[in-house]
Amino acid sequence: MYAIFETGGKQYTATPGDILFIEKLDVEPGQEITFESLCSANTETLAWEFPGASVETSSDVSPKVSYAAEGTYTVKVTAKNASGEAVAEKAGLITVSSKVSGELALLSQGKDTEATAYVNENEAPPFAVDGDVTKKWCATGNPPHALTIDLGGVKAVSEVHIAHAEAGGEGSSMNTKAYTILVSTDGEEFTEVVKVTKNMAGETVDTFPVVNARYVKLSVEKPTQGSDTAARIYEVEVYGLDEAL
Ligand SMILES: [Ca+2]
């Protein structure tokens, strides 16, 4: 028995005692959000809770809700059948702010970078944020390999796109398998916001509850699908608001 829900193409999976949330959305007041239930086929009933929303409870497969007032909101879904129930709940999943309008801003392109290692000047850290998916930051040696981007000021960030080896024309076996994304306001103390352990894709999009940060660090723990320890990161894009929340 498990419960999954989805917003904006990302899935949230929950098994009892193991709750994982992949996506957080930033929206403006009144903006509609659609949730999709992907609960297992043997689910008999579905109960959504959206405290503070236009629709606070629903048993629909894909309820649509909006929030009139600014704030952060919790979302919960419970899937039940004869064998039991599974609950997926996340406090602060949705942030509603009038500062959000339309698309999130790309905050990282051309910003200062540093890395724990890089191969040479042609594969240096700035190539991870140069906007050119044919040029990469490459680091060899023992992982983890970390790349830190200084956004130049504290911003509200909530989404990171990464172009791995395949996106730059290399083999998919060179795609990053395991990585974490961490954020910091001072460049000293970092908080993990994303942890991926089994990626195979050439391009990844990770979203997380909105957080104020100046520094965004990508730590590549398992650089490829196999034993090759070189990180090949063609681009990192950090999205959010061009100001703190
Ligand atoms: Ca690049």
Account of the 3D structure:
By secondary structure, the chain is mainly beta. It has 2 domains: 3-96, Immunoglobulins (Immunoglobulin-like, Sandwich); 105-241, Jelly Rolls (Sandwich). The chain has no helices and 19 strands. The strands form 4 sheets. Strands 11, 12, 14, 15, 16, 17 and 19 form a 7-stranded antiparallel beta sheet that branches. Residues 12-24 have low confidence and may be disordered. The chain binds calcium ion (CA).
Short overview:
This protein has about 240 residues and is mainly beta. About 0% of the residues lie in helices and about 50% in strands.
Shape: globular
Mean pLDDT: 86
Termini separation comes to 38 Å
- Approximately how much beta-strand content do the residues carry? over 45%
Residue windows where pLDDT falls under 50 for at least 5 positions: 12-24
Tally of separate domains: 2
Query: What composes the largest sheet?
Result: 7 strands, antiparallel
Number of strands: 19
Ligand inventory: calcium ion
Features of the shown structure:
245 residues, mainly beta, Immunoglobulin-like, Jelly Rolls, 2 domains, seven-stranded antiparallel β-sheet, five-stranded antiparallel β-sheet, 0% helix, globular, binds calcium ion
Topology:
Elements: E1 3-7, E2 10-15, E3 18-20, E4 25-27, E5 33-37, E6 45-49, E7 57-58, E8 64-65, E9 71-81, E10 84-96, E11 105-106, E12 112-115, E13 137-139, E14 145-163, E15 178-184, E16 191-196, E17 203-222, E18 231-233, E19 235-241
Parallel strand pairs: 4-10
Antiparallel strand pairs: 1-2, 1-5, 2-3, 5-8, 6-7, 6-9, 9-10, 11-19, 12-14, 13-18, 14-17, 14-19, 15-16, 15-17
The structure holds calcium ion.
